[in-house]
Description:
Blueprint: H1 2-22, H2 28-38, E1 60-63, E2 83-86, H3 99-123, H4 130-135, H5 142-145, H6 150-153, H7 159-167, E3 174-179, E4 186-190, E5 195-197, E6 210-216, E7 219-224, E8 230-233, E9 240-242, E10 254-260, E11 269-275, E12 280-284, E13 289-291, E14 313-315, E15 318-323, E16 328-333, E17 339-343, E18 350-358, E19 361-370, E20 373-382, E21 387-393, H8 396-399, E22 408-415, E23 417-424, E24 427-434, E25 439-442, E26 457-463
Antiparallel strand pairs: 1-2, 3-4, 3-26, 4-5, 6-7, 7-8, 8-9, 10-11, 11-12, 12-13, 14-15, 15-16, 16-17, 18-19, 19-20, 20-21, 22-23, 23-24, 24-25
Domain F-box: 119-164
Keywords: Kelch repeat, Repeat
Pfam family, one: F-box
Amino acid sequence: MEAELAMLRHFIGQLQELCELYGSPYYPHQLQQQQQQQLLPPDTDEPPRLLHDRLDRRWCFLDIDESSPEYCSPIMAAGKSRGIKNIDPCKPPPSKKSRKERNQGKSANNDKSAEVMDQEIWREFPEDLFEAVIARLPIATFFRFRAVCRKWNSLLCSQSFSQHCAQVQQAYPWFYTITHENVNSGVMYDPSLKKWHHPTISSLPANIIVLPVASAGGLVCFLDIGHRNFYVCNPLTQSSKELPARSIKVWSRIAVGMTLNGSSATGGYKIMWVGCKGEYEIYDSVKNSWLRPGTMPPNIKLPLSLNFKSQAVSIDDTLYFMRSDPEGIVSYNMVTRIWKQFIIPAPLHLTDRTLAECGGRIMLVGLLTKNAATCVCIWELQKMTLLWKEVDRMPNEWCLDFYGKHVRMTCLGNKGLLMLSLRSRQMNRLVTYDMSNKEWLKVPGCVVPRGRKRQWIACGTAFYPCLSATA
Length: 471
């Protein structure tokens, strides 16, 4: 009992010092009367009460949370007291937090616990599932995960990892483009993240200009500006090689197409080039050589007058090339080695037309210009009538920007998702068009790394990114 009274006297002394320091509304004689009332003998009916239970609540209240940064613990002879928070007597007591504030605090704590939980999960994650998980991450993370450790960097050489990547089908293709400002290096656009990437492909020659002309299975085919040498490269992994020299020396402009031997690049690929006079050759990656299967049949009118602005369209094992005089399409089947010709009149007032493909259907994209109005239109080839049927066009409010301007269009890529470069003296615009959903979207400008200068897109092609594709 004496020890408890000693502790109480010590505590009361501290409270008196606090009263003098912070200006308590109680006077000394009142405080002395309260002290005498508190120190009642043990045989009285009223239990002893602490002084701070009866003091003015404007300046102190109990703090149950001892982890608070404002927690203070008076030194006592025995035991540990609860903390006391000091408040300015002129300020009102703290208000109760709203439910939104309390929920925000809980969410912050949950985020911290989730981080700890994630670390625990990954620490015990089975080793045999790492490749399956990484293969299903967004392709953009590939640029970062290789730097984690040597083991993850070596996944590109793993056969099992290649099999996991082959099972993942990418929803949208990427675009590999060349800019007017820097023709010796390309830029890639990821439509899912709406972000530009600036890779450095050291394996491509730096002293000559190489342009992307075709793609298949995550690989991009390049041709030098002199139409002499071919290169194949995976822009993500920089796996690349230069193809052997062609047996036919044709230095004029040529059209190029590319197909796969199977469902992925692991089974090999074929590249075909066609000249206006009917010359053509096929490169087989399995044999690593150029082959000349034969000559073009006489029912196909020569010269072809190929539309070099339009890239070849590949559907299964067949390549489709756009030609003029007469207007139409020529096709070649890589397996059966059969040529076909389709005479298809082009829509009126159409310029800058390009072939495209969506779900096995042959599409046509072009600028429809009449008087001073210009609009981008989409047509689909009707198999029964072999005529073009308009299926969509750019929104009218976008086309108003083209009114009275001499607009030129370049189609970058023709596989389900189109990227259109629309330019004039007063305008440089990039848009994408999803042929499946008929959705038009504006593309953010391609800016030089660490700069603000906007780059102009010159040419490009679409490719489905694949980490396991090797040249």
